[in-house]
Specification:
It is built from one helix and twelve strands. The strands form three sheets. A four-stranded antiparallel β-sheet has the order 1-2-3-4, with no helix packed on it. Strands 5-6-7-8 form a four-stranded antiparallel β-sheet, with no helix packed on it.
Length: 143
C-alpha cells in the first residue's frame, strides 16, 4: 500500500504473514522518493502488537494512522508506529482497504467465490467509533 500523508510525503508498506514470508513475516515501511518509484530511506520494520495477516493498508484518519490487514485494525500517532491493535471488523478474510470519498469512509474488500479462478470486490460504508476502532456496514457484508 502507499499512503500520501498530509504534508505530501509518500510511504509504502509491504509484507505479510509469517506463513507466506518465512523468517521475514510482518510489515515494513519506507518513505518514497519524489519520483514515487525509488525509496528515500531504507525500509524499517513496523512494530505491531498483533501478528501480520495478509496484505496491509495504511491510512490517516484524523490525527491517527490506521494499519489495516484483513479485518484487523491497529492505530498509531505516527506513521512509523508502533501500532496498537484495537480489534477486528470481520470485514475481510484477506485483502481490504479503506478510503474516503466526498466525506464518507468506505471499506473495499475481497469477496470469495467457491472457484479458485474468480474474486470479486465488495464495497461498504465504514465509520470511526469514538475509541478509534473502525466499523463497517454489517448488512452489506452479509449480502
Amino acid at each position: 500500500t502507499v499512503l500520501i500523508d498530509a504534508d505530501g510525503a509518500a510511504y509504502i508498506v509491504v509484507g505479510g504473514p509469517e506463513w507466506a514470508y518465512p523468517g521475514q513475516g510482518g510489515y515494513w515501511i519506507a518513505r518514497l522518493g519524489d519520483d514515487m518509484t525509488s525509496l528515500a530511506e531504507s525500509p524499517r520494520r513496523l512494530i505491531v502488537d498483533h501478528p501480520a495477516d495478509d496484505k496491509a493498508s495504511l491510512n490517516r484518519i484524523g490525527n491517527q494512522y490506521y494499519l489495516t490487514y484483513a479485518g484487523h485494525v491497529a492505530l498509531s500517532d505516527t506513521v512509523y508506529g508502533p501500532y496498537r491493535y484495537v480489534g477486528n471488523t470481520a470485514a475481510a478474510l484477506d485483502h481490504g482497504s479503506y478510503f474516503s470519498w466526498r466525506g464518507q469512509l468506505y471499506n473495499a474488500f475481497t469477496i470469495f467465490d467457491s472457484s479458485v479462478w474468480y474474486r470479486a470486490t465488495g464495497l461498504c460504508y465504514a465509520h470511526r467509533r469514538n475509541n478509534g476502532m473502525l466499523a463497517v456496514d454489517s448488512l452489506v457484508l452479509e449480502y
